[in-house]
């Protein structure tokens, strides 16, 4: 069984991470004001968090209401071949696929997709059919 090294974070590291999660572009001196440190000291802590792979990257949140209409779908895939690696590679490359999980129970995989038109969804489903059957559910309202 794989052993994981326990990562020790102090309260300041945790507060810095919380502030960066809210806004990854917040200036170092603003974070410094919140944690009672200089911007340079905060920067050194962030570099340390990156080197320890605690911070793995930065991202943006887009206001989807401004960006455009889309459909969220959850697709359960039932494999009819043993080409799991090929399917995973294909789906990892598809921009519409937001998440992919190998699951137990009914089916082999479940994916979460975001498509902006029916053609994009149909194209993805046609690709999936080369590997297995699917069951699709579309989101009609996001609760949380």
TrEMBL record:
The keyword DNA-binding applies. It holds the Pfam family HTH_AsnC-type. GO terms for molecular function: sequence-specific DNA binding. GO terms for biological process: regulation of DNA-templated transcription; response to amino acid. The keyword DNA-binding applies. Residues 1-18 form the HTH merR-type domain. Keywords: DNA-binding, Transcription, Transcription regulation. One of its GO terms (cellular component) is cytosol. Gene3D superfamilies: 3.30.70.920, Winged helix-like DNA-binding domain superfamily/Winged helix DNA-binding domain (1.10.10.10). It comes from the Bacteria. Residues 9-70 form the HTH asnC-type domain. This is Lrp/AsnC family transcriptional regulator, leucine-responsive regulatory protein. It comes from Anaerosporobacter mobilis DSM 15930.
